[in-house]
Every structure is written in structure tokens, then in C-alpha cells.
């Protein structure tokens, strides 16, 4: 995949292209429908498929007190876009100058003069230009002016009513319903980060854990125990029991943490960059009166997680 970190990095002879534009926060089924249409359109015109997105959520500039939490980190978002087979991604720095462009200026500078788009693919609620005054109807008018066609992709509504959206995905992850969130994403939700040293308490209990750095990216689900997978930096996948919370049974650090116990393997993962994928919620975080009931609960957790992951 070609990657452009600014409009000036796009070659002068780029295109012709089929382009889709959006925030693409999370890369859910709605986003995938737009990208699939972009791939199909590019094939029809024998052109290049392009995803245009932004280096940060526009709200971080326009309404900084109401910025939605990222579902994925920036690197994982690019990996997910690349996995669709799209040919190029342009990440526009969302600057005050970009926010001030009128709809006509936005389309002319980006879609027409730089990407040489013949087809533009957007969702039904697409808004653009200063003050978000540009609509799909505005886009169609500009398409006639600058000689490109506009394709509007229908909402994806798995239940026949509510459309898939990043806010819906966030709601589900925030409540721990990662299985339902995964259905809307079309993949497993994951967090990415480095494995760091913890307090080694899990090893003492017979359940050593890989501790995800506090700088890890991706939306953290609610506290509790989850079944999932750890994907190592070389692509190897391991079944894991994932604990999220503050370990209330023990005194000490009160920061929420993500710890993954690799089932049936003892590994040295310190310093590795991994993705922890969430499959299903098992139980809420609990506080125990001692070590023995904690270990008994962990023994049962592993039995249940084996079933969830179909490990036999």
C-alpha cells in the first residue's frame, strides 16, 4: 500500500482514482462497505483505490472538550486499512487551515487537483468543508462541476434498525460486550502495545501474565476477565485469559491494567510489540478474601476460557 502523510507527498501524476473519505475510527462494517465499493470502482475505471482520512479526530480541533475515544491506535488503523487491499492511503493533518476550507476548496484541492478522482465514495451522513456545511447534495453538484461521479453507500444495519457506527462500537466495548462489538467490526477488537514487567504476582500464583504497557493503544474494555488471543510481533497467535482492572484483592497500584495469561505455554515476551484480541467477556472483576479462593477462581476461569476459544 502506498502511504502519504500529507497532500504534498502525492505525486503530480497520481491517478486516475476512486476515493473514499472519512474518519475511519475503528474500521467497522460500515467503513468496510465503503472501502469495498472503492475497490470495485477503482477496478471499473482501471484506477487506484484511495482511502483519505485524518491524523486525528476533527473534534480534537473543533470541539476539544468532546473528543471521542479512539477505538484503534494510529498504527493499527493503518494496518487494518492495508488489510482490505486498498492501493493507497492519504492521512491529512487536520489543521486549522484544512478546517477553514470551503466545500469547493476542499474538493478541488484534494479530490480533483491532487488525487485526480473519477469516483468519490461516501456515506449518507458525510459532511465536509468549513462548518461542515457540505452535504452529499453539495458533493454531487461539485461532481458535475469537476467531472467526477459520487457513490453514496447505504448504512449497514445488522439488526435491521440501528446503523453500525463508531459510537455503537464504543458503547459495547465500554460495557465489556466485546463479542457484540466484534460483530460490528467484522473482526476481533484489539489493543496494541509493548509487554512490560509487572509485579510478578501472577507467576507466584501459578498463572504468569504478560502485562501490556500503559501506553498501549486501542480502547480498553470494562474491568473483568476475557477470553482472547495474543498475537506476537512475528504473527504467532496464543490463546490467553485476559484480566482487566486494578487487582482489588491486593494492595498497591490502582491504575487499570491489561494482563494476559498464555494458556499451555511459558513464554518470555518482555519487550515484544503485541496485539491482544478480545473474544468474549467471562466475568466481572472480583475481590477475594485470600489467595486460595483467587486461585480456585482462576482455575475455573481457564476451564471456561478453553471452552470459549474451543481449545478442547
Overall number of structural domains: 2
Distance between the termini: 39 Å
CATH architecture of the largest domain: 3-Layer(aba) Sandwich
Secondary-structure element string: EEHEHHEHHEHEHHEHEEEEEH
| Main beta sheet | 6 strands, parallel
| Parts with pLDDT < 50 across at least 5 consecutive residues | none
Any idea what the shape is?
Answer: elongated
Helix percent band: 25-40%
Q: Structural class, judged by helices and strands?
A: alpha/beta
Query: By CATH's scheme, which homologous superfamily of the largest domain applies?
Result: HUPs
Record the SSE blueprint:
Blueprint: E1 2-4, E2 17-21, H1 29-45, E3 48-54, H2 59-62, H3 74-83, E4 88-92, H4 96-99, H5 103-112, E5 117-123, H6 136-146, E6 149-153, H7 166-174, H8 178-185, E7 189-196, H9 201-204, E8 210-212, E9 224-231, E10 237-245, E11 257-262, E12 273-283, H10 291-308
Parallel strand pairs: 1-4, 2-3, 2-5, 3-4, 5-6
Antiparallel strand pairs: 7-8, 7-12, 8-11, 9-10, 9-12, 10-11
Helix pairs in contact: 5-6, 7-8
Could you characterize what this model shows?
The chain is of the alpha/beta class. It folds into two domains: 152 residues, HUPs (Rossmann fold); 121 residues, Riboflavin kinase-like (Elongation Factor Tu (Ef-tu), domain 3, Beta Barrel). Helix content is 30%, strand content 25%. The strands form two sheets. A six-stranded parallel β-sheet has the order 1-4-3-2-5-6, sandwiched between helices. It has a six-stranded antiparallel β-barrel with strand order 7-8-11-10-9-12. Helix 5 packs across helix 6. The radius of gyration is 22 Å and the shape is elongated. It starts with a strand and ends with a helix. The mean pLDDT is 92.
